[in-house]
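Quarterly update from the structural biology core.
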Amino acid sequence: MAIVDIIKKTTQLIFLFVMIVSCNNNKTNLKLQSQLEELYMAHNFLMVENILTGIEKPLSSDLKYMADSLMDYIDRYRTEYPLTESDLLKILKERGIDASPTLVEQWEKKKQLDYLVMDGEKRYFKNAAYNLVLLNDSLASVAGSTSLNDDHLGAFCVSHISDVINMSSIERMGEVVCPENFLLNFSLRIHPGKVTPGSPVSVWMPFGVKDFSRQSEVRLLRSSVPDFSLSSEKCAHQSVFMTRDADEDGAAEFSVSSLVTSKAQYFSPERLLQSRFVELPDSVIPFAKERGPHLVFSNRIKELADSLTDEGMRPFEMVRRFYYWIDENIPWARAVEYGLIPNISKYTLENMHGDCGMQTMLFMSMCRYKGIPARWQSGWMLHPGNVNLHDWCEVWYEGVGWVPVDVSFKLQKSKDKRIREFYISGIDAYRFIVNKDFGREFCPPKSWPRSEPWDFQRGEAEWEKGNLYFDDWSYDMEVTYAGRL
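Predicted structure, tokenized:
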């Protein structure tokens, strides 16, 4: 069974004793499977743990794998939702917010506080207080910058976008321009005591997509482990794979350095408006279809997309409508780990906020529902002073091809419409593309479930006894700006 399929089964609660039933189909096991599914769905994790602890040992390798994976996911929930109401109130008070249980309940109803009831007790998202000041207008004075085009980054982007547009011509629309060189140093360190000293630890480190016009000169300059492998260019997630034994304290550090040239690209809206709906090429058809669990044409997605469009609209007009609606209605906020969200686009629409990947998933869902091909891209944003993980996408137009769209960078603060709407049909040169799709198999594949089953930007790690989750290690991204070619 592929790792992605295992993750899908785990997150959709078709887990664990599917394997038991396939090996030994009897009423006892079916009853136990049903009981565990019911308890897990209700987030009664303590009872699940008690049942798993009481199962007769030893387990077969398949059953042990699935049991360990289930326990892994329970630990993930506890890591993401660690705060009691008392903890939350204390954090808010430290941030200068005079809150009360009554106010907390009001904020919950407005979907401004993310929580989960686990083992009968309400637990809040670890970043609930941070998100609250972003999402609640009355707390705006506490929030500070609330979007990706505020303050320094916004001014930097407007200046850079002006250069990109000036260097782009209608005759050579979509030509890559303004190349920038970056030296990228990435390190990943397993914390002491997380694995048995001397045990082999394997990691997948993010690497750059090579077969792409906007990203060239992708070269690995140095690896801390001499024996490494690079993923095939056909792999949707580009990585450097390496293995080494843990130190005497159980720690293990890995690092890579690479050189990347990134280029900007801009497509004139006037030209894109000429593109109509046509029969799609075979290579593009998959990107105009549903792809569960996150790109599903739910009734709410259909109703929203239909309400924003009119009969006879051309693809770019629809894309522009969707972009404007998300810009106005879905503010950026920190997200729960994607592996715990059954349907990202649905979650984003229900909660009316989300991070860059969640905004992008919602946008892609609307595009695909309307027959507009859209595909995922992600990696890092490399803007000076704002280096971070980031997600965006591309939309396909007849007669043009794939056009970049970054919905989370929002409408820019400029009176020039071309600059204001730049990220609807263009992208800057400060990108590191790692992924060409989401939720695909690694090269080589992981043996244990991924910490992030859908995206890949900060690495993955495991050892012989299981996956190493994000709280088991830390990472560091260092960017040196080498300037233009």
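Residues 61-80 form the longest helix (20 residues).
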